[in-house]
């Protein structure tokens, strides 16, 4: 639970307070489920009707809404979603309690370089010549291959696999079961069967990337698979070898990106979207759910 007044939130997050700034808030909730002491938000005028019926004590609203005079406190924001997320991040997400240091039941090669204030939990394996940045947290069952580099403040949940040579930027979050650097799927059909092309490339993940549970990112055959900074990837997504995603892309669950695809910045793939190999997609494109992209956009 949090314990803060509406006025304190207004000052901390730059929000205009309409109503009782001394209104005390102890929890966050959705518009429909909020009760006394709750903070909630309305993203746009589309949901303004809910202001009449919500039992929340305070609501973060956009500037364009004319709020009802019903005794509630309103916090006016440029972007209520972003402001609400900031409040939750500041007051309601518990800081991860870690013991610090390398657990004696972890297996860390002698040549690994570990930064300051790093936590390595039991049953983690870190291979030769890996580099672990400051304040990283590596949870149980994770395997980090030879020569992998982690930037500062990365969080690797349980059972993550980083294959040899993979590189993460700063503040990357990998959820349980993520595999980075798995071998790409490349074969040539011949009269004698399928001939495998070895994949000896790497994967580079930019800063502030988050990747959902059981998502896989294949390493390139020769060069790099690249995930641009700020990109957010949902659970159960497949990213093929040699793909290069731009900055701040969003990939929803079960999206499949075939090899050597290129995207610009701020591209959105809705659930179960698919892209064939060697396609280029420009910036600010939205690919809808179950859509298939077979040509350049």
DSSP summary: helix tally: 3
Largest sheet: 10 strands, parallel
Please count the beta strands (DSSP E, at least 2 residues each): 38
Separation, N- and C-terminal Cα atoms = 47 Å
What percent of the residues sit in helical stretches (DSSP H or I)? Answer: under 10%
Structural class: mainly beta
Tertiary shape: flat
- Indicate the mean pLDDT: 94
Low-confidence stretches: none
Please state the CA-atom Rg, rounded to the nearest Å. Answer: 23 Å
Instruction: Report the oligomer.
Output: single chain
Strand sequence of the main sheet, in spatial order?
8-11-14-17-20-25-28-31-34-37
Could you name the key traits of this structure?
single chain, 297 residues, mainly beta, ten-stranded parallel sheet, 3 helices, 38 strands, flat
How is this structure best described in words?
Helix content is 8%, strand content 32%. It has 297 residues and is mainly beta. The longest helix is centred in the N-terminal third of the chain and has 12 residues, at 80-91. The chain is flat.
Structure summary:
This protein is mainly beta and 297 residues long. It is flat and about 75 Å long.
Topology:
Layout (H helix, E strand, L loop, with lengths): L3 E2 H8 L2 E3 L5 E2 L1 E2 L9 E4 L8 H4 L4 E5 L10 E5 L2 H12 L9 E2 L4 E2 L4 E2 L4 E2 L4 E2 L4 E2 L4 E2 L4 E2 L4 E2 L4 E2 L4 E2 L4 E2 L4 E2 L4 E4 L4 E4 L2 E4 L5 E4 L4 E2 L4 E3 L5 E4 L4 E2 L4 E2 L4 E2 L4 E2 L4 E2 L4 E2 L4 E2 L4 E2 L4 E2 L4 E2 L4 E2 L4
Parallel strand pairs: 4-5, 5-6, 6-7, 8-11, 9-12, 10-13, 11-14, 12-15, 13-16, 14-17, 15-18, 16-19, 17-20, 18-21, 19-24, 20-25, 21-26, 24-27, 25-28, 26-29, 27-30, 28-31, 29-32, 31-34, 32-35, 33-36, 34-37, 35-38
Antiparallel strand pairs: 1-3, 2-7, 22-23
């Amino acid at each position: 639970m949090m314990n803060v007044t509406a006025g304190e939130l207004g000052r901390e997050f730059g929000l205009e307070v309409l109503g009782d700034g001394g209104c005390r808030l102890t929890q966050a909730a959705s518009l429909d489920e909020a009760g006394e002491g709750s903070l909630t938000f309305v993203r746009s005028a589309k949901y303004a009707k809910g202001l009449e019926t919500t039992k929340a004590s305070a609501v973060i609203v956009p500037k364009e809404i004319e709020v009802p005079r019903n005794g509630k406190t309103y916090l006016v924001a440029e972007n209520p979603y972003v402001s609400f997320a900031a409040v939750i991040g500041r007051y309601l997400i518990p800081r991860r309690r870690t013991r610090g240091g390398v657990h004696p039941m972890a297996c860390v090669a002698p040549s690994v370089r570990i930064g300051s204030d790093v936590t390595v939990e039991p049953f983690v394996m870190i291979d030769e010549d890996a580099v672990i940045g400051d304040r990283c947290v590596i949870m149980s069952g994770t395997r980090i291959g030879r020569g992998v580099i982690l930037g500062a403040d990365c969080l690797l949940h349980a059972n993550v696999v980083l294959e040899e040579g993979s590189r993460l930027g700063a503040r990357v979050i990998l959820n349980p079961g993520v595999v980075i650097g798995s071998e790409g799927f490349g074969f040539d059909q011949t009269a004698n069967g399928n001939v495998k092309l070895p994949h000896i490339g790497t994967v580079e993940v930019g800063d502030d990337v988050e990747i959902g549970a059981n998502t896989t990112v294949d390493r390139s055959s020769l060069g790099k698979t690249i995930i641009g900074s700020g990109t957010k990837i949902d659970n159960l997504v497949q990213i093929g070898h040699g793909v290069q995603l731009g900055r701040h892309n969003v990939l929803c669950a079960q999206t499949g990106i075939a090899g050597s695809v290129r995207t610009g910045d701020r591209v959105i793939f809705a659930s179960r979207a698919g892209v064939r190999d060697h396609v280029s997609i420009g910036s600010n494109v939205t690919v809808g759910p179950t859509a298939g992209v077979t040509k350049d956009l």
